[in-house]
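Before we proceed, please read the two lines closing this message. Report back on whether the structure tokens fit the sequence:
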Amino acid sequence: MIGTTVSHYRIVGKLGGGGMGVVYEAEDLKLGRHVALKFLPDDLAHDAQALSRFQREAKTASSLNHPNICTIHEIDKADGRTFIAMELLEGQTLKHRIEVGAGLVPAQGRPRGAPLPLDELLELGIQLTDALDAAHAKGIIHRDIKPANIFVTTRGQAKVLDFGLAKLTVAAVSDRRRYGDGDIAATAMPTAGTAESHLTSPGTAMGTIAYMSPEQALGKELDARTDLFSLGVVLYEMATGRPAFAGSTMAAIFDGILNKAPTSPVRLNPELPAKLEEIINEALEKDRELRYQSAAALRADLKRLKRDTSSGRAAGADSVRPAVQGRTGERRSPLRMLAWAVAGTALIAALAYWFAPPLPPPTASNYVQLTHDAVPKILIGTDGSRLYLVENPPTPILAQVSVAGGDVVSFPVPSPSMYPLNVSPNGSDLLMSQGTTACVDCLWAVPTVGGSPRRLADAAGWEGAWSPDGEKLVYSRGLDLYLANADGTQPVKLASLPSYAHDIAWSPDGSQIRFTVSSAFESHSIWQVSPDGKDLHRFLPGWNPTAEERCGSWTPDGNYYIFVSNGQIWARRETGSLLRKASRAPTQLTSGAITYRGVLPSKDGKKLFAVEALPRGELDRYDAKTKAFVPYFGGISAQDVAFSKDGQWVAYVSFREGTLWRSRADGSDKLQLSFPPTYAAGPRWSPDGKEIAFSDVSPGKPWHIYLVPAGGGPPQELMSSDTGPEADPTWSPDGGSIAFASVSSKTDIRVFDMKTHQVSTLPGSQGLYSSRWSPDGRYLVAMPFNPLSLRLYDFKAREWSLLASVNTAYPSFSGDSKYVYFLGRQTPPAILRVRIRDRKLEQVVSLKGFHLTGYWGEWLGLAPDDSPLLLKDAGTQEIVSMDWHEP
């Protein structure tokens, strides 16, 4: 259309477009001014509903004469096309303003979006509330307030756009019949939106999912307070650079809007005043009776905060002028003058520190891939020129690669039973643990340049690290942490831990020891203790309760601690700054679909090394006839696959999302049964095929067992009584009971009676978990917490017996109850089975070269014909380096 004339407008150029309009810049040939012309897209030009919405936008907005609402000049029709002529604005949408963050395009690895400066946020917020107050006063509810519908001009003026979804209240409709609005929808019925911006289908009467109020999401009658909630979401995003309610699915976003409070804005942006968080929280009240009741009230609080922050700065400026006034003609002594000079200098320095902007956050950039073999990896350490790593766990190969990249070269190990833990501070030795029956978890120092390994006295543990000065050794064994001399002599117990310690690291000055605490039933968290055994506590308690944290390392200067949380790399300032304020809140360095499994600063402090993973699973079945693994169920990325008793239906958990699905065995009739933030595990069908029991193992909260109808519906918690964390439900064949593991500090097997709702403990089951009921109902198999054996309970004999002495995982009964299949954690790992009748153990297939994956790194199940099912790691893992920028 560029160059054509429509009515009395000459089209100059295209400004943009979306699902409900295409906008052009045009010259008004009558008045000689430039305007914006908005047309319906060609595919909607003859859609009566879309046209009605388009006309409603023009009529509604044109009735609002306000400096913060885009002015509508006219609505007209020419050559069969309806258009709106409106004022031409120069600037950018608030959405774009937040995304580029003060005009800067986000660097690679930096989270997209940035908070707005406080003064700009408050000024825009005041203008927007003023615009909404004017609209609400005329009975107009916008219903689609979002950053994309707010324009910020080059002069900093906010303009509310797009009244196409506006609703008139009943009183306003009677006053506005001259516009022919007729029947304007009174409620907003939610429908699915586009993945990119959560928009609804054109013409539907609702809003944008991520910015909807709870009452709007539920399709209830709306009033002006719905706009105030949406504006609260916008203010949250302006303050933090992040959406208040995010999720990969519509259900996840709705769940956040209806049931969850967003992360504290001050936690995401520590520079915000606490009062602003109070304002945002009141705007985001889910109960509209507790929310701001009018835009005027919200505007008043924003204005008051703007006044207080401005006057606070002014008061601070006034207070910096110390009046030194003596009596006329008084002679000041040199010492007094020196004292005044020192005090003045100190005051100026203090004020300079106070008013100076805080240190900017650290960043990581210039990502370089160092390895190219895609196999699983664990970073062990560096001597400055080489990186030491383990490939292909659980059958580990010690290897090394140059810090500049290149081929991964295997490193000779004195014994295949030795596992590398760490590198000495000077790079001369590898700390290794040996696990044999004769030497359980013995610690060794293995020279990196050749020579005989040295046994570290009587020290024994599965994790450890030497101190920065090379004088001490800390190591973990069981639930205890020990400190010894570097050669392993004179060990003393340092602390008793809440669970097992891994990934041990020292601070550069040797004053702190940090490590990952983990168990089979809890999320990973970082803890710390001093070398004298005092002050044992969780690192950053309460920072992110649902985080999966992994201990990292300090930068060589000790200024920052780098670690992994929920698969992304974070940095936390550990020291203060002489001239600038430094935030101690962790800064996220990476984001996106790629996850990271360990991070390590370089010796010179200029780079970070990390294992970068692109996780993907493939469901495979072992075919005994061809003796090969083949994709199963289309090779979907799923774990915890369970079949109904008749084999006609299947339930599974998507990897890595953790959502529970149900379908027919041929893949048809697919239905999602759980939604984030629930992370489902271990689904089991009821014998009648009507219900599915599963565990919710979401990080940061107690595990519980739920029942969900196979036909869909909200999951219901199995037990109302407080039995502690529960996992691994398994149905009795008659459907009358569910056995499960109580997974508190002391595990045992318990049985829930479906009729009486009573819970009993299976005698002799202390220390056992992962129970499975045999299809014939006679037996129940379980594993001890240290899974070095399988135990079998005979319901007839009412006693436990040893079924197999081997490191096990994921036991499953065969369909005829004659065998128990399980993963054998040996070298190499294998699928094993043991016969119940005579305890005969046999190997089904070796897993050498088969890379397992799953929520806990592995998984094994059985198809209806007893064919083993595994989740193969079809993703990639590589070591990358990135430049570290420390302010």
